Amino acid sequence: MDIKEFAKQLEERTLVFGVRIIQLSAKLPKTDEARVVRTQITKSGTSIGANYREANRSRSKADFKNKIKICESESSETVYWLKIIRFLKWLKNEGIEWEYKESKELLAIFTSISNNLS
């Protein structure tokens, strides 16, 4: 697979992830505490794809690297919020298994991309 096809597939993957995060957040309890987590995970989970698209349309290598670092950071934050949801048992583990696994894979991908940029 060439780099353009990889980028296209990763854009689609992050879009699907963002949609699934929005759907997951809608299932969280309707408490003040859960509202905070709902807002945070929705922002971080959808930011990954938005920033990756911006990276692919960046104006310079430095801009690309910066956007990829943001993707990495937002992926890490999303993993964190999913761990909180799992720890508090707000949703059944099997109900967030795909999102948790995908968030960790996206973090690994963006970490790898970031580490390979010089």
Please describe what this structure looks like.
The chain is mainly alpha-helical and 118 residues long. The protein contains 4 helices and no strands. Helix 1 (3-26) packs antiparallel against helix 2 (32-56), helix 1 runs antiparallel to helix 4 (93-115) and helix 2 (32-56) runs antiparallel to helix 3 (61-88). The chain is elongated.
Number of strands: 0
The SSE string, one letter per element, is HHHH
Q: What percentage of residues falls in helices of 4 or more residues?
A: over 70%
Largest sheet: none
What amount of the residues lies in strands?
A: under 5%
Low-confidence stretches: none
Q: Which value, in Å, is the CA radius of gyration?
A: 15 Å
Class derived from helix and strand content: mainly alpha
**Total of DSSP H or I helical runs spanning 4+ residues:** 4
Q: Write down the overall geometry.
A: elongated
Euclidean distance between termini CA atoms:
22 Å
Mean pLDDT: 96
The quaternary state of the protein chains shown equals single chain
Provide keyphrases for this structure.
118 residues; mainly alpha
Produce the secondary structure layout.
Elements lengths: L2 H24 L5 H25 L4 H28 L4 H23 L3
Helix pairs in contact: 1-2, 1-4, 2-3, 3-4
Short characterization:
The protein is mostly helical and 118 residues long.
